[in-house]
Amino acid sequence: MKVTDPSGQVWRVSRRWVPWRRRLKGNLDSGPDLGSGFDGLGDDPISLILAVILLILLLPFILLLVVAGIEFLLLLLVLPFAVLGRVLLGRHWHVELRQGWKPWWETAAGDWQASGVRIHEIADAVRRGHTPTATLGDEAGRG
Q1: Which pLDDT value is given to residue 27?
Q2: Highest taxon of the source (predicted)?
């Protein structure tokens, strides 16, 4: 649920669907723009050396994309079972408050219905200007 506080800051209040957080940070779209730079590589040894150097420089970005892709596929594989288990077995849900997409605060909220009520309570509090103190992210470490 999207909520705006009195100062105009946008907050999101929602259930956390899986029992873990993603570990990769950053924007995967922020890699270098390669364009069509590979068209100019020729058949000579100097082009081979340049291609190997370019591959070595791009290897961290390639590995990051592979790891993020594998994590995303595993998330898609596990997510239906995690949600089904939570709903059928009555597992407790966590409600989190995010500033934009950055986690800010979370709390245990009980079953599906109780977490829905808690989401609306937190959203109403944020609308009135009563934002909880940060317990997650960079802001929580600052005293």
Answers
A1: 47
A2: Bacteria
